[in-house]
Amino acid sequence: MSSARRVFRPTDRGLSSVNFSIAICYPLFAILTVPSTLLPFSAALLAGGRSRRMGRDKRLLLVDWQGEPVPLWKRQLEVMRELAPVELLVSGMPDLEYPPDARVVPDKVENAGPLAGILSCLTAAQSELLVVLAVDLPNMSSTYLSSLVQRSVPGCGVVPAIEQDLEPVAAVYPVEAAAVALTLLQQGRRSLQTFARQLEQSGLVSIQKVAPDEAALFRNWNSPADL
After folding, report:
1. What's the CATH code of the domain at 201?
2. pTM over the 0.85 mark
């Protein structure tokens, strides 16, 4: 078994000040067996992008869901609802008819990309873990997201990786990751790859390799050529 890594965990979710305590995060594959039930967690749909490359609002693109065409945002919320989270959050603006059980969380840091959305949802979350899912991943399944939650523990989430590329918009983050996101944004650094790598180095996430037959789950719709 690999040795334990000590990491700092913010106990205050506010953005103005952060207190720290010591936590231990072991590699999850070494100590964690898959539980029969999931830990309590919040779920957030990342839907605040401007869709510049697509040329139209990606949230409204139609996709098949259980034999019927539905807007992509509805499909993604249904995927996360199947996980039975403590709450459903939507990162973005309240400009669509989101269902009553989905709470819209505007970015606290404007024009800063998906990292700002993740930060806002981490600070708003009522649970210790947050599942995030980008709106433009039309193949992602609740089964796969559930497997990520099963490998997470309070204080240590999971980020998938295809070879050396991390997949940080279909991942699980501990709320302690908010401090890292805030620091990066204050430095003008918006890269989700950098964010996830820093969390890995701090012991706040583990990396899960994506199997070849799972890679299609991460196919995204960024431009008309992807449709």
Report:
1. 3.90.550.10
2. no
